[in-house]
Structures are given as C-alpha cells and as structure tokens.
Write a structure and sequence with these properties.
5 strands; 244 residues; 11% strand
C-alpha cells in the first residue's frame, strides 16, 4: 500500500538514502529535505500523508518545534520520528509535540513501513518494548545515562574516527588515502575496521549509525586532534565480502 510521504533529517545524505529506499518499495516521496529545523514550512506546503522526521538529539530543547507547527497547521499529516534508543526523554518529547510514532534509527525498512501505515491510519506507531523501556528509564533514571555516541567512539582509534568522518562526507578510498596521506590499502583496512567495530555492513550504514547516535559529531570533534601520516604501514584483517 503506497504512502505519500516526506523524509526530513538534519543529515541530507540520510534523508536521501531513506527516500530512495522507500521509492524502490513503491512509496511516493514528495521530498527529502534537511535540516529538520526548516522542515515545517515544506511539510505544511506539500501536505504529505506521513512525514518521517529524523533526529540524532530528540531530547534537545526545541528539536520538535517543527512537529508542533505541523500539527497546528496540517493536523492530518502523521509525523513519525526516527531517533536513537535508548532515549526515553526524547520519546516522551516527541509524543508531547504531537508525533504519531517513534521508530528507532536502526530499525529495518519493513519496520519503518509498518510505522508509516499505522500512523497514516491514526494509530500510535511505537513498539511496546520501546515504550516499556522508556517508562522504566524515566521512572528509574540511571545515575549516568548511557551515551551511545561516546561508547561507540571509544571503540575507535583517532585514525579510525577520522576515517569515519571522511566516509560520512562521501569520500571514497582514494580520497581518504590522499587526504590522510596514507596508502590506499591502508585506507581500505581502516574502513574495514570501522565497519567491523560498528557492526555494520556498508559505508552508508556506518554513516547513518554515526549520525543518529551523535557519533559523527563526536568523531568530527576528535578529528581536529588527529592527522599526520602513518606511512601506509598499518595492517589489518581482511574482511571477506567488503570492498574498500
């Protein structure tokens, strides 16, 4: 069943990638836009059935203001938030702003589709276990909430963090090697290590995970302290089926 929708995200690459995937599955994508801060005007003008609203910081003040405006001016538009988990305050803030659903950023495309259809039908599109986890965290907050972006960054070396930023910027192996002054084979090894450590199978998945969890911003910050040449001597494991 085709849905007329819009995809907005602070990272244009992610918005366009998700829009392309949904088009291939028969949905009518009116627009893929960034950033989310300016999305309300576009959604109000285009009036889709569903708006997928991606954010890496659902608990940040004002992040859901566009959803409030959409609900006020186009109440028939169902907004489904794509955000990180765990983020109990973000989930609560999304629904308080008028969102019809909340889907974790690493959900499969089939799960996103189910949420879209439920939201369009006027139902609440959020997994019960997601709500249970959110309520449990809100009622019993941890002393130090888990920061997924920080945890993932700690798994990467400074050089791998720089590679991740370059991957997210769309650089291929040749450009990564030239920018970091290393051999292409070494750049390819760094990319493979990043994919393994993040538990993803492609560069696009790595960029999406990094952006959604805040890892990309953290990695970009750490990148300024890196640099220098390793002379192309680093070696790493070969991962079958993955291309640099």
């Amino acid at each position: 069943m085709s849905v007329r929708l819009m995809v907005v995200d602070d990272h244009r690459l992610l918005a366009e990638a998700l829009a392309s995937a949904l088009k291939l599955r028969g949905h009518r994508v009116l627009a893929a836009a960034a950033p989310t801060a300016g999305s309300a005007e576009l959604v109000v003008n285009r009036a889709p059935e569903v708006c997928l609203f991606g954010t890496a910081s659902p608990a940040a003040p004002g992040v859901f203001d566009p959803i409030v405006r959409i609900g006020r001016e186009r109440p028939q538009v169902a907004v489904v938030v794509l955000g990180p988990v765990p983020s109990p305050r973000g989930i609560a803030a999304a629904f308080a702003a008028g969102a019809a659903g909340y889907v974790r950023h690493d959900e499969r495309i089939e799960g996103v589709e189910r949420a879209m259809l439920k939201a369009r039908a006027g139902e609440s599109a959020v997994a019960p276990q997601l709500l249970r986890g959110a309520f449990a965290e809100l009622l019993n907050p941890a002393a130090q909430p888990d920061d997924e972006g920080r945890r993932l960054l700690q798994m990467l070396t400074p050089r791998e963090a720089e590679v991740l930023v370059r991957v997210a910027e769309g650089e291929d192996t040749r450009l990564i090697a030239a920018g970091m002054r290393i051999a292409p084979s070494t750049a390819r090894t760094h990319v493979q290590r990043v994919l393994m450590k993040l538990g993803v199978g492609s560069r696009l998945e790595a960029a999406a995970l990094a952006a959604r969890t805040g890892l990309l911003d953290r990695a970009a910050g750490s990148r300024s302290g890196g640099g220098g040449s390793d002379g192309g001597t680093e070696q790493g494991p070969y991962v079958p089926g993955q291309r640099g």
